[in-house]
Structures are given as structure tokens and as C-alpha cells.
Amino acid sequence: MGVEPGAAETREEHADGASARDERTDAPSDERTHAPVEERRGTRLDDRWARVLSTPRRRALWYWGGPIIVTLIAAVLRFWNLGHPSTIVFDETYYVKDAWTLLQNGYESSWPEGADADFAEGDTGIYQDSPAYVVHPPLGKWMISLGMAAFGAGDAFWWRASTALAGTIAVFLMTLVARRLFASTILAVIAGLLFAVDGNAIVMSRVALLDNWLMLFALLGFWFVLLDRERTRRMLDSAIGEARAAGREPHYGPALWARPWVAAAGVAFGAACAVKWSGLWFLAAFGIYLVVVDAVARRRAGVPFWLTAALLKQGPVTFVLLVPVAAVVYLASWTGWLVTDGGYYRHWAEEAGNAATGLFSWIPLALQNLWHYHEAAYGYHVGVANPHPWQSNPLTWLFMIRPTNMYYSASDDGSGGCGADTCWSSIIEVGNPLIWWAAAAASIYLVYRLVRYREWQVGAILMGLAAGYLPWLMYLNRTVFQFYSIAFEPFTVLALVFVVGLVLGRRDDPTWRRERGIAVVAIFLGFVLLVSAFFFPIWSGVPVTPTFRQLHFWLPSWG
């Protein structure tokens, strides 16, 4: 730690009660004045880093290179040995086979009993023409099918490849979102790194389930909302400034139609809904958020009737740009079901007594069939309560009390590959405890922070967290699982990164403050990486000894 000239002498003066210079001067000590010593700011590391980024080319390299590096780390953790296990894992029994029959028939088809083992062995043509009753929209399964469409379904790697790619893209997107929120590349890289090495994010990228796609589209929609926020603020200020320069008082302000990022958000949130209906909450939450942001922007710009304008003038415009776009994307995801004849309930309205009469008789029968399908699926969702050994209560999700064990196998003949006679392999969707518990604490702190300081970044993060998490509190008796939390995990990580930024401080902070902040963050990240390395075998199905596996159960409910 560097010491400025004279600082050591000043400390000695305070310690001894008198300066050694008192003995070398004739002037009384109480007649002398001491010039204040300016407190040093920043650290040597800050100075070195400033020199490293001293040219535009180097800054651009760091601007993109940092996010790319953490994305490559994410890719390795998600694609390494992705084809193991070669069997169908957990709910892949639904989504992988549904994805394959979507490719073949255009709708999800039924399979004979015991088809999982045959499918895993490469016998992928045993599906039937009769439809399967499924309760989730098709888009996520279409996305899962991409790898199989390109390379076939004979290898488990290709069942999961597109989902792993989605998880990798999400890490890069996370860095873009964080940089937009915090205006800091180092915080963006930290956000990407935390998401890259967390176990929940890794596991959900390595199994072909729907939830990773829901997360990706919701995060993409959030990024578009952030892009719109800054652009619209500039447009609003410019329009109001021009009106006042022309002598017109903008009582309500303009209605802004040129907002392509809102339409893009509609596409993304519509895609999220087309993966799982819980994406609707993200659409609703950020639709409200856009109206609130507009109201705040108009108030700050001095618009007299800012609230009325936000609700009744700009609000309907925002709705038109967002919601119908999302609806079109959602409906388009059902194209395969609509253009074929074999889907479940595809001809329901053609049966006697089912078709709509009166006011709604004009609706095409295909859409009436689709509406009935949605009614039936909704009834299933709100009523499902079949006990499952790995179900978890949503009240515990932030604290990761009951993660899902998605795969388990054991061998006792020494052939398991762990170096012992008995080897166990697992895929347990448990996050990195340091990340999860710190993120949970940070999320709770941000609620206080929003009330106390009203920072826009905090409000945006908490809106995403609320959209992904709070609706599940209405279904505490349903059979639900911890891995649903992947949909809102990006927002808990962003909450953690916000707090990391507070701890890290700024380069113009006092040296002692800045040094402590850097040290705390560096130590935390170091331990995060060590814990992730320790847990990776049970995230990826690596054979381990029973004792080593047991060491990962930090809570009794994990086993």
C-alpha cells in the first residue's frame, strides 16, 4: 500500500503528541499551522488498469473481450460431455420426444410404453400418429428440436445442444444487460461470470427442458426494455425542447410511436409465453414498467399533466406496440398444430354441440379448437397436485432448500470410472451456494434500497424478479420444482452484482476504502470459482464415490 510523502511523519506526530520538528524551531507550536494532507484516492491497481486501457483499441478489446471470455467459459461448462448421460433425463421424457414428433408430424404425438429406452438407443421412429395431450405451448419444443433437425436424434448430445446454446447465449446477454444497467464493463463481466459458473444455470443448460428457453426470452425482452428506456428519454426530451422553443407548452407531451425496442420486447416476451405461460407475467410486468418509466420521464421533463399523459396518451401507444406483437408471436408458435389435422383437440369444435353459437359463431373452427385446448390446459395447470419426491415449495426457492435430483445411477463392480468399486453419478440442480445465498440476501436488500433511494436500476431488477417469482406464491399447493427458478435467476444475479458494485466502490474512493472493496470482491469471486469446481461433478453426471457425493449435501434437504 503506497504512502504519500509526509504521511508517515504525520502519523508519528499524532502518536507522540508532539512533532519532532518542535525541537528544531523557535516558534511556539501553537502558533504554527499545519497544511491539511489530502487523502489519497484510488489504488495502484486502478492506475495500472488505466494504463492498460489507455488507447481506444485496448478499451474496445476489453469492452468486447471480457464478455466473450466469460461466454467461452460458459460454453465449455455447458457443452463438455453434453451427451452424458445418453439416457433420457427427468422431464426430457416429455420434451425431447415431443420435439422429435413436432419435426415429423407438426404436432406432439404419442409414444408406446417404454419408449424412453428405445429412443435413447436410436429407435426414434416408434412414435404413433395419434396426438399426445401436452400442457405447454410448442415453441420451447421447436427450439429443442433444432439440434435434432440438423443432426438427427440418435445422439443425446443433439437432444440438448440447442438448450446448451441458449444457456451460453444467455451469459453473453447477461453481460450486455449488466453493462446497460451499471455502465461498467467490469461489473458486466462479473455478472456474466457468476451466471456462467452457477450450478442451476449449468444444469438447466445441460438438460433438454423448457425453462432455459423461458429464461433466455425473458432476459432478451428485459434487454430490449432497457434499450428503449434510454432512447425514449432522449426522444421525449428532444420533442419537448422543440415544442417549447417554438412557443408551445407541452401540456401532455408527445405520443411516441417510433419505439422499435418496445416492439422487439413484444417479440421476446411473446416467445417467452410461447414456451411457458408463466412468460405472461414478464409481459405484464414490463408493460407496466414501461408506463411507469414514461410517467417519471415526463414529470422530470416538466410536463404538467405527466401522469394523465403516461396513462391515457402514451400508455395506449405502448400497449399497441407491445401486446399485439406478443400475441402474434404466441399464435405463430402454434402454426404446426393449426396447419395439420392430427393435433390434440384439433377437431373438437366439429363435434356435435361444441362449436360456438351466437356472438362468437364467426370465429374459425380451428381457433375455437385452440381456445378449448387452452381452457383444458389451464384447468390442468391450476389443479395439478400429484406428490413428487423432488417437489419444492416456492417460498423456499430463493434459499434453494430443495433442489431437483434429475438423474442418478450407481455401479458396484468397479467399472464406474471413479477409481473405486462403488461409483455414483448424479445431476442435481443445486446452484452454487455462495452465489445463491448471497443473491438472495442482495435481493432482499434491494427492496430496502428501492424504498430508500429509488434508483432506477434497482427498480428494473426487482421488476424482473417479481415477474418471475411472485406469481408462484399463488400456487403453494401445486406440484412445482426448484428448477423453475432459472426464469428469474438472472435478476437475482443482477441484484448481487449491484451490491458487488457498492462493495467494489469507485476508483476515486479513498485508498483504504477502494483497497478493501477490491479485496473483498476478489476473495468472494475466488471462493465462488472453487465451489463451482467442487460441485461441477454433480452438475454434469461425473462418476464420483458415495462419500464425495455426500460432501455436496450442505443441507439435509439436498439429499
Provide a descriptive summary of the structure in words.
The protein has helices at about 5-15, 45-50, 55-80, 90-105, 115-120, 140-150, 155-180, 185-195, 200-205, 210-245, 260-275, 280-300, 305-330, 335-340, 365-385, 435-455, 455-470, 490-505, 510-540, 545-550; strands spanning about 405-410, 425-430. It is mainly alpha-helical and about 550 residues long. The protein has a domain at about 215-320. Helix 6 crosses helix 7 (about 155-180), helix 11 runs antiparallel to helix 12 and helix 12 (about 280-300) packs antiparallel against helix 13 (about 305-330). The chain is globular and about 80 Å long. The protein starts with 6 loop residues before the first helix and ends in a 9-residue tail after the last helix. It is a multi-pass membrane protein.
